[in-house]
């Protein structure tokens, strides 16, 4: 019983709106409930389960405390254990240290004469941007999850893949395989981050779902930080321009690159710190943009059928089309991960199905166009990459469409969608790894 209560308290402590005194009070209520239920004849396991249910949903409890103690909520996110003072929490200090380390790393090449101003230096930074940012996020999770040497091994494998492909391979900025590797490498490394985030990635489907939720929240927080940084940069340039001092060089070579890689860690800390303390933004945005993207894709398909125009399969068009489909898939992924599996089908689920079907039709049209171009003009790295990615998306979207249809017709539960989502994640990563590692030598580094 004591072990269960300690585990319950540990989970409760993650709710930033609740401090140590609140946890003690709730623990007292829990123990009183357990004693009453034991006296009524329930065994230990039953008493604990019923007592926790009586206290209520922890997220709801956290929101109630947040409404009463809104000022304390933000103090708890920053200060150590919610105690007033100037001592920052250990987790925030660790995040800041890893963020500073990332900022330092992106300036280290300058000591060896590799600057961002010339073309050769700019290409070096572009192809190694993953190494300047994501390894420090991985190190933060190794520290936080206490993964030790096992976590360092996983991170080292990711760093080795990134370092070899982007620096040992003879890649040039004009090569198609170089651009494809540059685009796909962050996805491969994000999978490494997922392994470190979950700690037991292959053993727990719920932890994989947690990482999908984290990824959605993370993307939003990073964009918000970037927007805030853009405003701050504009004000910096403007203020110094008032006194006729040019600080553009400082902004371009220090503020922007150091801030961009440092924010990679800070955004993760923000997501972790406010988790379950205040309402998540990603589910709300998903419900707003799902109908809008559904209307957009429907209008796009209708326009194509009326005008008879097909895709102009230039490289930029292929990349833009795949990014759009990936964005739609991201909306579906997060909608599935943030939905209550026990809730019955609703109107939003119908919109999800329409969005998936529309994206599936666009994907099929793109595949037909790509296949036609390959049959006419032969294989190139871009066409093969586009063909593979659209096939991967075709299978994924087809699975979603079929399972959503069965769910809406009440022929299957929502958990089947969740299993499809989590089990298919390695397929995305494997294809991205093939593009990063195999494509350059396969196509002669062109």
From TrEMBL:
Coiled coil: none
The UniProt record lists the keyword Transmembrane: yes
Keywords, comma-separated and alphabetical: Membrane, Transmembrane, Transmembrane helix
Residue spans crossing the bilayer: 92-112, 124-142, 154-171, 177-198, 219-243, 249-272, 284-305, 317-336, 348-372, 384-405, 425-443
InterPro entries in alphabetical order: Perm_prefix_1
Full protein name: DUF4153 domain-containing protein
